[in-house]
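We emphasize that the prediction below concerns an isolated chain of 226 residues; any contacts that depend on oligomerization or on bound cofactors are therefore not represented. The input was used exactly as deposited, without trimming of termini.
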Amino acid sequence: MKSAVLASLTISTAALAGPTNPFTETFDNGANNWLGGDFLPPAEFATGGVDDSGYIASQTGFEFNESGDFNTLFRGNKGLFPGTDASGGAFIGDWIAAGVTNLTFSIKHDIPEPITVFVRFAADTGGAAFPGAVAINFIPVFAGEWTEVSIDISPNNPSFVTFEDSSFENVFSNIGFIQIGVAVPDALIGDPRLFNVGLDNVSIVPAPAGLAALAPAGLIGWRRRR
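Result of the prediction step, given as a token string:
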């Protein structure tokens, strides 16, 4: 009976779990269940990231693309089985209730053209990544250096070019998938080469007022532990 009660509590807790806000995935301990665009594990590097930290990397090519295509390179997905969520589930759940106001991450690439980065945030609909909200970072990202990309999580952010016939509320109240990639450069369509793209420091944060509210609670906990 006791074990049954504990199992019930565990399931209930899992069902209520939401995003860890604030949270930063540094990849210092590997990919942490993030995937490449092909759904396979990305390459892992212990050094070379932002401030010489760990990072992950994926490859992309444009030989068979058409103008206007987008190539997904990284996937922070809800897993099919327990324990397989990207970043331990830190990005999964109701971003609106959790007060998530911004997503940032750093990108480095060797593509011989400035690239346009996109993020698709998708709801979890019975395991399917739909509907989604697509945000485009219109600031070009140049090769050879780590560049931070920032997406404000707001229905008024003009970076969101589609909510796929849904709404900001429907998507961000049930985030199950984060997909990061690049718009295909027209100048490289048909090029047979493969290019490398690195990802580091994927981070969500609350509004500044939310951060301030967290500080006293953290201080009280610290004092109690002492």
